[in-house]
Amino acid sequence: MQAPELIDAIMAAAREQGGLGSSELMQRAGLYPSAISRIRATGDCRFSTLAKLLAAGGLKLVVVKDNREAELLAKGELF
Fold this sequence. Notes:
Layout: H1 3-18, H2 22-29, H3 33-42, H4 47-56, H5 68-75
Helix pairs in contact: 1-3, 1-4, 2-4
């Protein structure tokens, strides 16, 4: 997943779970719309920017082992 897709996923999750629109999320995170535009244009961002967005949306980053088979099984797509 690239940075722009991750930003979009964070914004979607904040909207679904907390009812936050993108403007309110950015305001709570202390970010300007230009920062999000830059991420989308360059495809890159700082971890601190992601952390701010996650915290503002009441979300957290979790690192798990990449297990493609378990993921497909959970989705019902393995067989």
